[in-house]
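Appendix B. Raw example, untouched.
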Amino acid sequence: MININGNLISLQDAKISIENRGYKYGDALFETLKVVNGKIFFFEDHYFRLMASMRILRMEIPMTFTMEFLEGEILKTVEANDLLQSSARVRLNVDRGEGGKYMPDEDSSVAYNIVAETLSNPFYPVNSFDNYVVDLYKDYYMAPGLLSGLKSNNKAIQVIGSIYAKENGLDNCLVLNTSKSVIETLNGNLFLVKGDTIKTPPLEDGCLKGVMRKQILALLQNNPNYTIEEASISPFELQKADELFMTNTIVGIQSIGQYRKKKYANTIATEIIKMLNVKLRLA
């Protein structure tokens, strides 16, 4: 069952108009959430990121879009798909409805839809990484700035980058911005470990304002064992790193095993996963 503006509809009956602005212009945002036993992981962070992104896109946020309302709609959708007592991957999509060209009609109003599907792992496992191989994606570049950091429906680079990865036997690609700094992977934020320093690109470089990125930085902020840096990453640094890992809400942490001829460990990533799972169990 799919939730379209509060109405539960079967997948077969669910339809979006050809005039939908998310379809026509990518005038839409989405959040991908992990729900386990009726609890939405990091929902407050997802909610405030969505609200901030809607403001950046100058969407008129409905008065009904409270945290409690959207949480209720998400859980209603999860329950309708018999996933309330298990694990679910949920996509919450928000668009500006229908009407207008580039300039929306004055009566265009925000619409939403929610889709839930089964997810196997309730918490975050230590993922296999030895054969997880990446390379740079250099056909196209991301522009630095806030718009690149939005979780919008404009994902052309991620789509064609994923096709490129499959064609070249890669598990993922590292995305560059127009300054040729490495900013993220195709589907998550990037962290680089060298000694006791853990580094991730700053939001100003154009990387996604990831919810899991925020969680990892918060976990490590007061840890005396590590030095945390939000700083640009040059492709040359990749060869000298001890570890590379990517993060997103669904996977948690995925260690990278190899970049070109360089192979990495996953000692620090494994430690962070354990810290993350302890935090979730105590929440």
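End of appendix B.
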